[in-house]
Fold each of these.
Amino acid sequence: MATAAEAAAMRRAVALAARGLGFTSPNPVVGCVVLDATGETVGEGYHQRAGGPHAEVHALRAAGERARGGTAVVTLEPCNHTGRTGPCAQALLDAGIARVVYAVADPTPDATGGAATLRAAGVDVEHGLLADEAETANTAWLTSVRTGRPHVTWKYAATLDGRVAAADGSSRWITSAASRADVHRLRAECDAVVVGSGTQRADDPHLAVRGIEGAAQPLRVVVDTHGTAVRPGARVLDDAAPTLVAVAEGVEPLPGVATLHLPYADQNADAEHLPYVERAPRAGGNDDGTSARPGTEDDEDRLEHRFTASGGAYRAQRPASRPGSRTPQQPARGLDIHALLAELHARGVRSVLLEGGPTLAGAFVAAGAVDRVVGYLAPALLGAGPAALTGGGITTITEALRLDVRECVALGPDLRITATVAAPGTKEH
């Protein structure tokens, strides 16, 4: 049974692991603390970057000879394979570690088995200490291993009555500076930030991390089905971070821009006959309902599509044809969300921050591709304007996507609520 010193060391290891968020993909975040034979901390470390030394190696180096006969407390089962670095199980044996306490078993076929190797060599091994805390810290990587797609966090900002913009489309600013700064922390912890064509047209967003020293920049992804939203000179095309534009198959890419061609989402025949929900153009807007104002910051999203949603697909009314359009006439539906996530996963993306507006969010929800929701709620009421989520394939209360609230934090005048998708079968209380 784990000691109080080992429990304290595991809490420290979990905190250390979190320092690697945004830097280690496609590897996990891992923290390790080494205790000497008396239970005193003599070394600690975390996995700092993909391809670099693992957490155990950093901690063993810090401990030196004092590690011999001691205990290694680590958030993830020590690996048992040689990749860009050697197996951590062997490193622990070479250092003379007598006991290993780890929180979560490694689910990857090539790396698992470290615990068995250690036990076979006579090391005392214990599994499961603070497993829930350690799993939460590493949830993006674990989700990607178990599901074969990146972990998705949907972030939105809204008023207390659930509006992400006013009736005229204005939304700068719904939330406070403290909330907007916190969004950059979320970006820094994720491998990719995803928005849709509506947000791209309305805001000309930058999507890079600002105000966090040393932060790794995420891949900026714009879901631009018909290839009409990202234009030359767009802010996402600067050199602050890499950018990928996802378009439908057959759409001509913008020259010099990394482009991903994806299939349209599958829709059943009934969905093709659903009526569109029309929205009058906003004041000062273009004839396709998009904003005519200059691009603004991207922390609040506007609804820019006329939509319906069914069966995991989203359908966007095509904007009126314009000179220079790079796409032929296409079906009024969106890209395959699962195909998008599969392509991102193949590129090493293990965590996605979805910052798109209500339509794209609805497509992800309908596809069952949202794992966590982070809502920034401002103490304000608008009474009209787009809601935070549209569609999602939900038509009745029994189909509601139930969430488990994990955290409520005050940020200036706002409230940040973090929730995860509840286990299947969860009922309303």
Note: Residues 6 and 401 are 38 Å apart (CA to CA).
Amino acid sequence: MGQPQKPIAAEQQILSLGRVLQSLREEDDVDVLIETTISYLKEQFDYKLIWIALYDRLNHILFGKGGITPDSDTSFLRQRVVLSPGDLLEQVVIEQHPLGIADLQTEIRAPEWRKIAEKSHIQGTIILPIRYKDRCLGVLLLGSERWGYLLTGEAKARLMMVLGELGAVLYQNEMDLQQKQTKRTDEPLLELLENLRSLSNLNQRLEAAVQATHKFVSPSRTNVYWFEREGRYFWCRMSNQLVKIDHNSSSQQAAGMTVQELSDFYYALTVNQIVSIGDARSSLKSHFTAKLLQRLKVRSLLASPIIWQKNLLGFLAVESNQPRIWTEADKNFVQGAAGLISLVAPSESMENTIKQIQEDAQLTGQVAQGIYSEHDLQETLDNCAKRVLARLAATRFLLLQYDPEQNNYQFIYQSQPYNRRPLTFALNTLKELDEQLLQRSTQAVEIENLDEDLRFFNWRPFLLENGVRSLLICKCTHSDIPPAILVITHENHRSWTTLEKDLLWAVSQQIGVIIRQWELHNRTTQQQKTSQAFEQCLRILTQSQNSKIEAGKKHLERTALEQIASILGCPLAVLLSWSPGESWAEIIPGVVNNSLFGIFSDASISIQAEALIQWALATESYLTLNVDNLPSKTRKWLNTPDKGQILVMALRTNADYEITGVVLLADYQERQWSEQNLSAIATLISQLAWWRREKQITRLLESTTEDLRQLNWYKHRRLEEIQRITALSLKQIHDLGIPANELTQMRYELLLRQLDHTAASMSGMLKLEQWQLHISWETMPIASLLKRSLERIENLLKHQKLWIGVHGLGQQIEEQSPNNSSLARGIPTSNAQSAMAMSPTGYAYAGDIVKIELVIHELLINACNSSKNGGRIDIWCRRLDASKSSNAKHFSASRGAEHQKSLELSITYNGAIEPQLLTELHNNTPKDVLAPSKLDQPPGLHLLICQNLMQELGGELNFYQLPDNRVVSRLLLTLVDHNS
């Protein structure tokens, strides 16, 4: 068996690493661990300076535990190093990452080590954290006489393994030490609980809790402070130094501490938060911590609230005259002791609490009974307010209701002592945050100190001015903007218990039912008022008035405006009125009930230039705006306060009809009009618009009818006189005898026959058509009808040098010049007539010959007047089936001729015609009888008469323009077989 081989260098390093790791795992003494680590580092690494220090987290300090130096002077290696911001050592501790320094002698961030480095000739340095998980337990400093600080990968790995094992062992030792040093709270608390069970008096129980807490925590003093809600102050009820302190004691310990003095401390207790103030640490803000310690004359404080049913009864405090760091065990015990006190505290007043609960239930029951009984609601609220004020020891009982018209809260009920005046102001609407606070609340909102509390900020000035210092607020109903709010106020700073807040919440919900009853009553009253206004307006609008009396019309409009204004309660209501086609509006005043509102009735208001009128015309319904938005030109004739509002609405009936006025209402800006009332007045204004339109149409038709009657009477009497004179002249001619000359005799007899025919036709017209048209039934060849029509305009054609051509009568027609001797050349000859009307297959017009001849004559006159001199007129004839025209078919059927044909007679010419006239002549175009129209005067009026007359005659008459700008008058006539 051979000699064992000597291990190589790498194996020796691994063996040495294994031995030191094993030693670190098996050792518990911290000093031995440090020495073992230093020895390994000295043996395995070529560093002249080695220093190991442990980190104190609480004090942010490094404690030196030893190492080696070049000159063997190790005194400074065991010093305490206080870490400061910016130091290299603090950077390693905080970041927990290694830090390399190329030359420690030049490093200004470690002044102490810089001096040591200069003395010991140390340059390259590495500082490494000793850590476990995320906790830094210490640092290792390695210094070399060489410049630089690099470690090889293998050496760095061995070093990190040793430091990692050292950190794990140090962490475990620290945890074991803490566990040994930690005081157990379970046994002392169980012992305290057993003592509390055996005691019957609250003061004795408080004394036992104070003594147990003082023994466990060992502070300078241990006190129990009790909270008085009325007055909002704390007083020392129990102390380990002065046991069983009387509430009325004048000692300094028993002296009260107000909530205003404690401030943040008090609000932390109310949310069940333990307050800890120790050495350089505080759970409160720094500026208040010093104030609180000065008030209590201590340097450390640990306080836990005593809470029962969300009500703060007081707090248990341990106080120290020296700076002290409170351990978790101290906090847990104080919190547990305070919790035990909160469990035994209610037993002192249990009977009173039960009695109070019974009285509260009786109070809410009486409120509910009063609501559903037949008692007066005012009496119910009086009884409720009296009992609530007595129960809560409050000053005022206020019930507010939101007024949407005024946009504020009004006091609809209030109760206060006899020596207090009722509140006479109104409260503005709540800010958005306060509205959300009330919407989310499920119990009364408490404000203990209105001087400091910023909630309900826009109410504070009014309430503070009237002596309110604390209050409870409850919403009575649920909605976006609380429509009803119950407020209980007090003249002093105070707080209320949860039981009291729950009571007020229950009462407020019962009162909410009363509010809803009032709302229903008010709504019914408003609906009745609106209904009466509707009834009155309808009665006014349906009254029959003489259209000639303008004052009567204005009286009805003024009365209608009064009813419209009464719904909104507006102090000003006027009507800006005009007739279609006018440019200026007339002011019709309806209501002026306030000197601040008014109009200048003599002002001239331009419809196009007045902004209010144009805004109303551009709005489909009503428009509301502030007076501030009105232009200065409008303010010259409209007098309203600066903080006012305007409502305007046009008298609109139909989109195709003319607007004849604008209703204007004015009111104060603070008032908010409800949607229900706005809808009601919109309906009434619409009714007023229709009434005005009907009245205007009636007046127009009556005036037109009267004018036509006068004209018809005059023309009829003139025709009677002409007929009489004509008949007398004929009689005289007959009496004179027949001339002897044969040619003269023939012409004489022809003229006599024409005069006889004319006189006979006038006699028939005077007899049958005095007040209405008489439709006769005759036939005439189409060619003859056209020939007679053209003969009547012969002089006009010659004067304007117009060309005329007739097409479609059965032969090729040549265009004729007006210079020819006779217009008949443009008409078919007798042969053509026989081909069209006289042959067995010919056709003739069937109807009222006189009237259709007048229609054709009017169309030809219009074509001549619209054509330019030297222009051209074409007459086109074309046969159609009866189905082409519904009117012709209906007329033929009424005559019993089912197989009759129609003739399309089109007159075309190059001339000017207004597009508006063409649009209005179209049968399907809606027409507003009040709007200015091209059909009110010739030539449009004559064309419209012809168009309507053709419909009565069973034909059609249409007007349109071709793409080449020629104007067409299309006439549809009924044809019959001439032989039939």
Note: The two ends are 158 Å apart (CA to CA).
Amino acid sequence: MSGWEPQLVGAAVTYPPHILDLLEPWFDADGPAVSDREATLTYRELADRSAALARELRAHGVRPGDCVVVHALMSRWAVVGMLGALRAGARYVAVDAAFPVARQQLMAAASGARVAVTEPGLPLALDGLSVVEMEQLTHRPADSLTEPAAAGAAPASGRGEAAYTCFTSGSTGVPKGVTVSASALAYSTAARLAYYREPVRVFLLCSSISFDSSVAGIYWTLAGGGHLVIPASRPADLVAVGRAARRWRPSHLLMVPSLYRVALRGGLAADLGSLSTSIVAGEACPPALVGEHLAALPRTRLYNEYGPTECTVWCTVHACGPADVTGISVSLGTPIPGARLYVRDSAGAPARPGEVGELYVGGPGVARPATPDPDPDSSPFRPVDDEWLYRTGDLVAVGNDGLLTFHGRLDDQLKLGAVRVERGEIEHVLTAAAGVAAAAVGVVTKGARHRVVGFVVPTGTVPDVPRIRAFMLTRLPAAALPVRFEAVSSLPVLPNGKVDHGELDRRAASLVAV
């Protein structure tokens, strides 16, 4: 024994060896599989087109284990491209065509792909790739989509070990690739099918295809025979989300908390009454958001999910309720089926109940390190017994009730005066103040010194700074308060909808000196 015993263990779950094993049973169905702004594909049509694409990819020299770039907007074409790559035995990198061109090029170059599949009508700004245009598949006779291209051709579906590579931002600004196996994706999807009581009837996809939160909605929906609805080419288009909700009456939705809050405050709840399940993920969920959800959609269950990309989208989940509204933070909940959670103190020993420590994650969803023998001093992956654990860098504590609470990140602690405080904690309190529609903070750093600027989207014309300061002093030490409050019409966001803290830090530096 290594001395590593998990503090929290998820329920047992069974899952097949490959994600396609969960999808293929539905491929003969005539019900709607995926709809975007322009058209709907049935399951049979999705199966036919992805099979034809798989054969086309093989004809272009793609072999099991190769990488294929899926260059598309958020659309039905993106889903065809993903499944076509998987059925060719390849792994895919989804490159959102709405991203800045430089970002698209970085992702494509880092992927190592030789072939790209493209959505019709999109200019391909990726150099050096052999291109397969998916539009060609729609012009073939229906019979040709279901028959091998030649005698002795490979079957429609192959099996590769890896499913996809997702690029995260990374601290250097250079995209960092995380490759997830087809087995891990099958596990993660099976865990959703096991955990959530309500099956997906209609899922509204509000995440960029280049970020792993989209993986949750796409494969969860298709593995249960549900209908995936893609409202717009950009996740933050709430007008399109409302239009799609009125038309399709969704049962499930996932958004980052900051976008969900804007949606509720913008009156979108009137269009979302059909929801049985709303999920927030990707950012810390503020307690005030739970209160706003319960008031606006009392019949819709709200869940707070947590999980690094390296853990195949999620590893904990919490069913939110009234008790979360008055807490300091919303719980991360308990491990999903199959996950194992370890909390270690600063000395590397198991943290006691209530003690803050760093979270490590184990289980079938954990990705593998890029090299078989990573440097233990620099790699976040740690071999323990017969599995890999992922060191998240997140600070958590396990309460006596068995629930996990989030206490910030190891690399996001600020020392303000003699007080150590998390950026996220300041933002939670600032956002909860009266008259604040949305808020975040920028940090100016020089050596070990930090100064904080609060950026506030007011509910009125200008923020009531004395009132905001008075409220924050009831929750935080005086040294943790922003030295300046700046009114803004909106917060800058990254392509995945999360707040762009790098941009806020740059703005803060232009406003205050350290």
Note: Confidence is low (pLDDT under 50) at residues 141-152.
Amino acid sequence: MENFNKSSEIQIELSDEIAQGVYSNLAIISHSTSEFVIDFIRIVPGVPKAKVKSRIILTPEHAKRLLMALKDNIDKFEQQNGPIRIQNDPGFLPPIGGIGQA
């Protein structure tokens, strides 16, 4: 376990606007030799266009750290709530177009 002194702690501020969050049901990831770009998109059924709601740009090292943190959190979630089911279709996208029925 690493020993951190108080002078190296970072205080993180979360504004009210950012605290609201942004819903996304699709992420598109691209990369170059120096960065990873993750575009978070919201697809709405019946609407032919989807907009990028947020774009995050990461160094390759931070992208790998994010991957490890997501895996750790998913493992903890599944221990408490059971396995997360994923659609069998590897090309699954949220429904685009058409009319939903209740």
Note: Confidence is low (pLDDT under 50) at residues 96-102.
